[in-house]
Design brief:
By secondary structure, the protein is mainly alpha-helical. The chain has helices at 2-20, 42-74, 82-100. It has 3 helices and no strands. It is elongated. Pfam families: 2TM.
Length: 108
């Protein structure tokens, strides 16, 4: 009876090892991709992208709300706040394009 119990345990251990370790003929991907994650569905990715865009927009407008009054209180003759306004608007536009999926590769 003890020999049979040990045999079952050994078989269970071997099957557990096989399930944990991939077979030798499977080559792991050298670089995992975020889109290949089985837990991430397209809706979750879209929500995450919109959330990052919202954070970017809040930082942009929050900074501009501070810079514009500081500009007009310190040097009202020279509108220097336009430089960060325009310079930051370009990356913000790229971020919007990314959220809309314009940079995604077509799935084949």
């Amino acid at each position: 009876m003890a020999a049979m119990h040990g045999g079952r345990r050994r078989g269970a251990l071997q099957s557990a090892r096989r399930s944990v370790h991939p077979s030798r003929n499977q080559v792991p991907s050298p670089m995992p991709t975020r889109d290949a994650d089985p837990g991430s569905d397209p809706d979750a990715r879209a929500r995450r992208r919109r959330g990052t865009l919202l954070n970017h927009l809040l930082a942009y407008f929050g900074t501009m709300v501070v810079l514009v009054p500081v500009n007009f209180l310190t040097t009202p003759d020279y509108p220097w706040f336009l430089f960060p306004l325009v310079a930051w608007f370009a990356p913000l536009g790229v971020h919007v394009a990314w959220v809309l999926g314009l940079f995604d590769r077509p799935r084949s």
